[in-house]
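Run log // design_07
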């Protein structure tokens, strides 16, 4: 349907298209899938709702899904992460997209709802952080009278989703249940969304199969790590132009994102300290050469604070009260509750520019808060570079093909793509960067118990 989109400015489409053309040259995995499946169109008949940062890289993902036969409607999974020229290019190409950088929370859920409105109904979800899945499942539970949660929102976010659910229920009674029952599966992009899916399985509430894309090795050990290594400092620089060399930076969490983030700051010359709760990750940080500290002990002396935990209340109001004047505070984890931003609301905020605020604390000290505590690499910069997103999104496309073509062979559980596909994703990215891969002699393969074509590692291997 013409005009079936909400973007900032459709005139940005030409600029978006030029950047898309460049991104394609850096996304060999996605382009190889177009070559491999462009004719057979394994996604024909699928109607995919995408809820994932509407960036240039995502635009290449969307066009790959379409090239493979899918019908697609898209929303962003974060209010600050859209690149308006990418959204415009996708809309101009005829795929409905609902995403504007700086949209409100109310718009966030409205746009997500719109991305579900295929005339014949959606049948697959491609999620990042789990909001699309949550929307349908929560709505269906409310319709079934299973939860009265909806009457007592405890945050602005909850109020926004609950109001949207009520609106949809009033407009189309039974819509959530019908939609839930038509969904054949979901592929989930990130650690936080995957966490939500495993919780649903534990509660017996997952009504369709899910593929955990995050835990493909070629996703979490690349995007979360090497992606953040490039995009964290990019975000801090674009937001503040601060001199990084010599500053003391604290990275909370030393998982995959924390490892990339600490490396990013060290690469820029900062003196980096790490906080952790897991002794294994704490030991890794120490042996990678980072001082592992308690946040309380460094809170009044460090210059930059970054949360990477996927947990809540990591930087709390009592920490921020102790910070020195002009300390920079930001989060690169999926949700904004890692930093107690809500507790800063009654302080004096001065907006410096989009996604950069200065907040005056009771002591008179000021903090620079990035992206209101939402993931700053996408809020203040443009997220990870195309090449690493190609690996992530190649996994996404393979997961969607699997769910669409063989979904009925899966139970309502969470699955990881088989190792041979993980290795395929890596293989598709070697040539672009001139990697030459050695070959196993048959005797060598037999000696280590694999075949010369792979898989090369047992399932329990951790990379
Ligand atoms: P992870 O589970 O590998 O790492 C999180 C680490 O934080 C763990 O080692 C955990 O022990 C630690 N942690 C938890 N609570 C803590 C606390 N109170 N203090 C200190 N450390 C604590 O997860 P991963 O893959 O690193 O993802 C982290 C977050 O980043 C998730 O929300 C994920 O969805 C998000 N993400 C963001 C990306 C971006 O581009 N901004 C890219 C990929 C993931």
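design_07 sequence
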């Amino acid at each position: 349907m013409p005009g079936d989109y909400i973007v900032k400015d459709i005139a940005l489409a030409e600029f978006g298209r030029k950047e898309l053309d460049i991104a394609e040259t850096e996304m060999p995995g996605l382009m190889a899938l177009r070559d491999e499946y462009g004719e057979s169109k394994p996604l024909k008949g699928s109607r995919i709702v995408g809820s994932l940062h509407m960036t240039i890289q995502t635009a290449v993902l969307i066009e790959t899904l379409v090239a493979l036969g899918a019908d697609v409607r898209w929303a962003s999974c974060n209010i600050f992460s859209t690149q308006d020229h990418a959204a415009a290019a996708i809309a101009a190409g005829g795929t409905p997209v609902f995403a504007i950088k700086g949209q409100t929370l109310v718009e966030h859920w409205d746009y997500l709802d719109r991305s579900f409105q295929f005339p014949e109904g959606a049948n697959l979800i491609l999620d990042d952080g789990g909001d699309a899945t949550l929307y349908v499942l929560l709505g269906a539970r409310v319709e079934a009278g299973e939860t009265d949660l909806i009457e007592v929102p405890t945050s602005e976010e909850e109020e926004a989703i609950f109001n949207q659910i009520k609106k949809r229920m009033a407009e189309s009674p039974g819509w959530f249940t019908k939609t839930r029952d038509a969904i054949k599966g979901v592929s989930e992009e990130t650690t936080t969304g995957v966490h939500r899916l495993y919780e649903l399985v534990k509660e017996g509430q997952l009504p369709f199969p899910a593929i955990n894309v995050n835990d493909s090795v070629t996703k979490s050990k690349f995007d979360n790590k090497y992606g953040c290594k490039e995009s964290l400092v990019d975000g801090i620089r674009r937001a503040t132009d601060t001199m990084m060399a010599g500053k003391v930076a604290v990275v909370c969490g030393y998982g995959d994102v924390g490892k990339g983030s600490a490396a990013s700051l060290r690469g820029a010359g900062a003196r980096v300290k790490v906080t952790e709760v897991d002794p294994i990750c704490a030991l890794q940080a120490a042996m990678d050469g980072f001082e592992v500290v308690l946040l309380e002990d460094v809170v009044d002396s460090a210059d930059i604070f970054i949360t990477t935990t996927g947990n809540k209340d990591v930087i709390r109001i009592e920490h921020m009260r102790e910070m020195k004047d002009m300390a920079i505070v930001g989060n690169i984890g999926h949700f904004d509750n890692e930093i107690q931003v809500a507790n800063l609301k009654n302080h004096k905020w001065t907006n410096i520019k989009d996604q950069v605020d200065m907040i005056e604390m009771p002591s008179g000290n000021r903090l620079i808060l990035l992206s209101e505590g939402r993931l700053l690499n996408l809020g203040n910069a443009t997220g990870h570079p195309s090449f690493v997103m190609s690996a992530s999104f190649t996994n996404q496309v393979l997961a969607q093909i699997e769910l669409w073509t063989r979904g009925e062979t899966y139970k309502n559980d969470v699955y990881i793509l088989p190792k041979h596909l993980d290795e395929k994703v890596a293989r598709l990215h070697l040539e672009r960067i001139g990697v030459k891969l050695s070959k196993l002699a048959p005797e060598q393969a037999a000696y280590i118990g694999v075949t010369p074509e792979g898989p090369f590692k047992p399932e329990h291997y951790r990379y």
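Residues 10-218+384-422 form a domain with the Rossmann fold fold (CATH 3.40.50.1480).
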